[in-house]
Design goal:
single chain, 147 residues, alpha+beta, 34% strand
Length: 147
Amino acid sequence: MPRIFTREITIVESDIDVQGHVNNLRYLAWMQDVAVAHSAAQGWGMDRYVAEGAGWVVRQHTITYKRPCFFGETITACTWIAGIGPRQCPRKYLFWRASDKVVLAEAETQWVFIDLKTGRPTKVPQELRDAFEVVEDEGEVKRMLEG
């Protein structure tokens, strides 16, 4: 059960915008994709959320773009849980180029746990809390680039 979840992504032509680099909307899609994959790896796939009658919605995204990336490059998308509150959870992300480990973007999403029938925030159940280990030290993630 990975505390810090990573996935490699190869940049394809449809990722590229008119400026010749990865479109910023792709980062949002990748953030969602790696968050869903991390959750599933921890035993909380979409089917389980539906069965529980609850799930996550986004309150806020923050992305800081550091460097561009281009067609054909391979990047690593990394995500982890930075905390778990009673009804919300900050999830962080780091994207780097595989070839030289240059950081391309840093991001964070504030997720809110909701009741799927009412759409209102609800408490994060203990079983879900227990499935994720909080990574408080962002430096731990950045040290992965050195290794």
